[in-house]
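Q: My collaborator sent me two sequences in one message, no labels, and asked for predicted structures for both. Can we handle them in order? The first one she listed is below.
A: Yes, handling them in the order given. First sequence, followed by its structure tokens:
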Amino acid sequence: MNFLRRVFPIAGLVIAVASLSGCNILIPDVAADSPARFVQETSPVFYQPPGVDPRRVRPIPDQPVPQTRELYKTQFHQTYGLPVTNPVHMAMYGQLRDEDFTLPAIPVSRVQPQFLRQEVDYQTVERPGTVVIDTKARFLYFVEGNGKAMRYGVGLGRDGYAWSGRGVIQWKQKWPRWTPSVEMVSRQPEVRPFGAENGGMNPGLMNPLGARAMYIFKDGQDTLYRIHGTPDWQSIGKATSSGCVRMLNQDVVDLYDRVPAKAEIVVM
């Protein structure tokens, strides 16, 4: 009896090992280390439509990256993302406290970039300090010398086309009074309350002359030609119904500080 008790456990173990020998659990699977097998088991499976030979399918050529975005086109011609506002323009055209008035910020994103203040290459025979107005392109240049000029966008009214030639900025005025001419009063009777007989319009944010005015003389006579600011920023770069040479208020303040006394001006 004791012998049987010893034999049966050993026989059971032998039978169990023999029955599991087909599973090779005791033999290492060396094929798992084969690179070929690894590639076969991990290679991606692609969808192959019936009747299509993948060997005869031509690859799609790389598409060029677009250089501009028509949806959000900016002066920087960005390729990706939303338009970025130039921080320099934000500083130049932000809210400005001047004398007793506060000029509101100008929405520069709604002004054509070429009409914003910028230093440009400008070859001219005019002396530094001269103001040149190109009525056709609607630009005003302040000649700096060394082939450079500060360029401003301007709007031109009917009177802005009425005179051309050479003159002198005889007089400059901060926050000027506006006195419409007799011709303007005859064309627009609604401005009669601001005529010379009534003392003109007081300075202010809604004054048509804006924050500054520069008065042009020739041979000692007033040409009635003016460079002035305007609260109507949307008129810059355009032809308007009245006025002379309009500038953004922040720009006319900048130009006023640059122009020397008795500066020469050329209008063409």
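Q: And the one she listed second?
A: Here it is, processed independently of the first:
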Amino acid sequence: MTSEPLFPLAATATTESGLIVPADTGILRVATYNIHKGVQGLGPTRRLEIHNLGLAVEQLDADIVCLQEVRKMNRREANYFENWPQVGQAEYLAPEGYEAVYRTNAFTKDGEHGNALLSRWPVRDVNHLDVSDHRFEQRGLLHAEVMFQGRSVHTVVVHLGLIAGSRVRQIQQLHQFIEREVPPGAPVVVAGDFNDWGNHIKRMLAGFGMYEYDGDSSTFTYPSRLPLAQLDHVYVRGLEPMSLQVPQGRIWWRMSDHLPLIAEFKL
């Protein structure tokens, strides 16, 4: 993967790790990415993509990166791949200078996986809510307060269920969680894999005052090889949606079954 920025922005400064800071310091850049546990393919032909994903996450150049299907550990894969990272995937994927936050959603016989948040800015008050709707799917919400340029932005990473009824109930739990944990009027970001092929969840969130940038077919994220739908979203409250983009090409669809989504907002 090229080391040149894939999404160049006008810049007046860079971080200590060399990443570009947008010229307009009031712009918050958020990315969401389902990384498919860092492995692509099945059986003996499967390949480890976590190292490429590490380069990709840095190229997203986001203030906040919301990740789903992140492995904390997996004994079977660690034994299979000689170059399996010695640390959890959230920690491994965090660019230099970023803070990594991870919480487990699912426990399996070989390990555990869940959601993660990588932040260029200080993080405080991390919470996790189990929103599993039935015994066949373990799901959770990861909440963290990110101090973006000294201002509090509450960020929730989600990975909703595959069943429509489960997603409705999980969005209701999300709404109750925000009402309980986030001060009224505080900026909120909700990002992740919503697993929704229609607009029902979008309408539900609009009823709670949560909106996203209205994109087009160029923002489809799934399946990565031939995107047909936008399953990945970034919804906000108290922020102004400015833009939405999805990287394209073979280098991206080889790394995961989802493409990353990058959104920008004005405070």
